[in-house]
Design brief:
Elements: E1 16-20, E2 27-32, E3 35-38, E4 43-50, E5 56-60, E6 66-69, E7 72-73, E8 80-85, E9 89-94, E10 103-110, E11 114-124, E12 131-134, E13 138-139, E14 143-153, E15 158-163, E16 166-168, E17 171-176, E18 181-190, E19 199-205, E20 214-219, E21 222-231, E22 243-252, E23 258-262, E24 271-274, E25 277-280, E26 289-297, E27 300-308, E28 339-347, E29 350-361, H1 363-415
Parallel strand pairs: 3-11, 13-21
Antiparallel strand pairs: 1-2, 2-4, 4-9, 5-6, 5-10, 6-7, 8-9, 10-11, 12-14, 14-18, 15-16, 15-19, 17-18, 19-20, 21-22, 22-25, 23-26, 24-25, 26-27, 28-29
Amino acid sequence: MAFATVWNYCVPLTIITVACLVRTAHCQAVQAENVTVLEGGTAQISCRLQNYDGSIVVIQNPRRQTLFFNGTRALKDDRFQMVLFTPRLVRIELTNVSVFDEGGYFCQLYTDATHHQVATLSVLVPPETPTVDVKQEAVEGGEVELTCVSPRSKPAATLRWMRNGREIPGVVSQQDNGKTFSVSSTIRIPVERKDNGAALSCEAFHPALGTQRRVRHYRLDVFFAPTVRIVPPSGILREGDSLSLTCSVSGNPLPRNIQWSKINDTLPERAEISGPTFQISRLSQSHNGTYLCQAQNNFGRAADHYTLLVYDNVSVTTTVPPTPTSTQPLTSHPATPTLLTRSFVLDPKDPGAVVETHSAVPYAVIGGVLALLVFTVICVLIVTIWCSVRQKGSYLTHEASGLDEHGEVQEAFLNGNDASQGKKEYLL
């Protein structure tokens, strides 16, 4: 075989290794392709050959252990399979990939000088759905600490807390576990009774998930003391009626036992208790008193009371005018019509109770008395005015008469009249 003294220059690329034989008519090249695969998936590692002349091709793992020697298996690992060996392409397949399989796989071409190209296998570990850890119970008026944990991913996952469409900033920590990472995000939020059942979510983002995300939903469980309210009956209770009270209880946890009692006394014999309901049939005034409903849980106790007032039954009678019969004559007597009225007043002993009262009022008699009084007052006024006018007129008449007599005295004095005409005295 003749050799020509020719120097060939091959352009080096990032992922191409060229083996040029000195003083040969051609150069041989090998090209390796990088691979990225999800953990548990299947990876195909390819070595492309150029101007292959039958030289030895060796493929090694990252620990430089020979996997295949010219297409022949050299390492007993059934996960590796030679799927293709041609003058242009050598391809092996690795199933059930783990993070311990990642690294550089060597495609070596043995000529006068050994040349190799490295195919890098990268393994992605997507995160599982994160978990939420609660450090302590959320109690009304306090704070709750929630930690979202993604225990394993590669590369490290990104965590985000959300509530009502808004992000809640958290304190992020990351731990390197060798081949994988664990990530956590912790938030502290104040809680009230109204926050019980509020929805939060922790979202995990990762390159292996693309635009998707792993979400863990969580609802706040806020503990608080119970509240108690007795639902009273409507209207006024009288003897013979039935009483039914309902004790409305809330709390977290919800109290299981509801206790009914009567202050300073025992419950009536006819009292019936069924959970939150308290009933008494055929009420009497002996049932009067204050009844108490109590409930408690691990975070407190609450109670409400109801004061029962039972009133007498009021009999209502009506006056029926006498009706003459044909068998026996009756003497009719004038009867005063009576109107039966109903009114409601507040009981001074119980400001919350309303007492119904009945009264029969003779409006005809009262109207006659009022009319007589008005008539008498009018007559007195008329007489008073008449006397006043009469007295004033008499005074004016005497005054005018006195003036006339005074004029006659003056005229007699001027005319010199003697005493024979009579002596007159005038009182001015």
